[in-house]
Amino acid sequence: MESMTSLTETEVIIASAANLALQWSSDRSQLIVDEKSAGQFASNADIEIEKRLRNDILGSFGDTNIIGEEMGGELDSSDTGWAIDPIDGTSNFLLGLPSWGISIGYIDNGVSVLGAIALPELGLIVSALRGHGLRVNRLPAPTVTRVRAVKMIAVGENDYESGTQTDRRAQALREQGYDVVRYRCAVFALASAALGRLSGYVENGCGLWDIAAAAVICEEAGMAIQTSKIEPGRYHVDARWYDQP
Q: Is the pTM of this model over 0.85?
């Protein structure tokens, strides 16, 4: 799996999913929305995109473990297989905001080795293969350019911890000198950070599909990223640039 051919195939798969997502985004009147839990939504677009991702992964890589946000599956952070999120930031997608994304990542015995994140509304695919550097729109990326004096970090919200707990986390980051933003989309924020557009991202309680691709992408960009399992299906992530002045 650790080959440039595998990365190229992954980029083709996520590009196809991004095109499908943009078709749905251009005519949101056709969306059928389901509220899975309080404030957590899915739509027929999420399901159709996940089906395409699964079919394309199986077609390119053969029989393999896959876990997806909408259709489930069995995969732990110590296992080997694919973790996919057809639309992260579904609320943003439904409202017509650009801050949503698609993520597919491959984990080999607990190590994130290959991944791609698409930000379709921005026309971006960010991808990486462990040891081969960051790629943007299927080409090797130049050294990430950042405005290091601006310390801006994103914080994730979810149904795992209360808003009060997340607010305390955000305040602690402010006390470290960061401006704090919340996009309500982990893969959008993590890809943006890898591109140098944020100082980092912190979330407590995200899914494996949110970090499987981002872990290798952020590392290959030059960031420090720590991920840890909190309980089955829930993870903590802290990804940052630490060379601030």
A: yes
